[in-house]
Amino acid sequence: MFEPKICWCHSMSTEMDDLITLVKNLRIAVDEEKGDDVQKLLDSVLTLIQSMDTEDGEDLPALVRHLATLLEWKSTGVLVKTAAVVAALAKIESGRTACCCSRIILPLLGLLTSHTETQLLVQVCRALGNICYENTDGNKLVVEAGGLPAVLLVLQRAVSVSEAPHSTQLRSCAAGCLLNLLMGQDYLYPKALELGIMELLYSVLELGVTKEGEEAAIHTLVILGLLTDAAPGTLTLSEKLCNVTVKALEASTSGELSELCVELLHTQAENESVRLHLAKAGLCELLVLLLEKHRPLVEDDETRNLLKMACDLIIIILNGDESMNLLYGDGKGKVFQGMVSWLTSTDDDLQITGVLAMGNFARTDRHCLQMVERGVSKKLLSLLAKNNTSAADIRLQHALLSALRNLVIPIENKGVMLGEGLLDSVLPMVAIPTFPVVFKL
């Protein structure tokens, strides 16, 4: 559900008694078509539902019947309040079950396709999204009634009128509704792609990730993750989507949003073309900046794992030949220089990432010659001399030996690196009985 789920417990029967009384009064007002009374009663019902501590759904079908009638009314004010009550009701499991019926879903979808009033569309998207939350039956009813294209059209509308009042709220609710509709429903993905969902999701992210638009961006990134995970290797991010996701990461002030950006890009970066898109979009430069800025704040496993994923993402991008050459920048690239500086970092993960990066940059003779000339080999050998026993971190040893192996390949470098103490640093490692280290020797 794209709204915080309420934890409902058993409560005093007085709340249900109050609800029963309100339902009876609502029935009378509906029968007598007293619009003002109906709106006041709906406000009372909404307030009561939001404060109730019960999962007792015995009297909910009666309420749902009256709500279904009200969803056919002409008054926009009544329609907005009715949809809001349905949305609140569908946040409760028993209420979601009661609302999971054609008499509620069909009128809601009718409103979605026939009205343009933003506040009404917001409440209808909330109602449909909550009905679909972890609810296969609800999803099925919404889909069979044409819900997927209808929700996509509303999201498109929210994007196209981005400057209008409440459009940000509509964008968030429509994206949340779309997420709940698609979650766990892989069979819908081809249809969604056919209807142009990728371009639409790009448009949502292109509007930025201001504090107000953050929720819509979060929903959008989760949807992108669902779609791409379901078709690994065949559905990849376009250059436009790569660019806009990097911009979202740069602008983000939300830990959740930043994590979603990194996770999505980490998965997608295994594709060679995506690697190059991300390198050109400046992702690695951004990650270096963010990692250096936020490293002092890494104090728990969750943030440490995110740091490791970001480091790994840099290395994955450097695995590509074109992206590696681009980021090397003839030895003047910001990423290359940043990775050299990480060789002396006090953070183990940043230091290991720097060493791994040196191994990736040292994949051409020209780079190897330049790197040795600029003292990179000296830095690596100095680091190895401090970590050439069985007590050292095997990840660091593995990375150091890989980088040194690449650097020593050009004939011109062999004598230089021997003179820098290559043998003195490496020979003590012969006694280390760890297979990867022995293999690198």
From TrEMBL:
It comes from the Eukaryota. Transmembrane segments: none annotated. GO terms for molecular function: guanyl-nucleotide exchange factor activity. It is found in: Cytoplasm, Cytosol; Endoplasmic reticulum; Mitochondrion. Signal peptide: none annotated. The keyword Cytoplasm applies. One of its GO terms (cellular component) is endoplasmic reticulum. SUPFAM superfamilies: ARM repeat. Keywords: Cytoplasm, Endoplasmic reticulum, Mitochondrion. InterPro entries: ARM-like, ARM-type_fold, Armadillo, RAP1GDS1. PANTHER family: RAP1 GTPASE-GDP DISSOCIATION STIMULATOR 1. This is Armadillo repeat-containing domain-containing protein. It comes from Graphocephala atropunctata. The lineage of its organism: Eukaryota, Metazoa, Ecdysozoa, Arthropoda, Hexapoda.
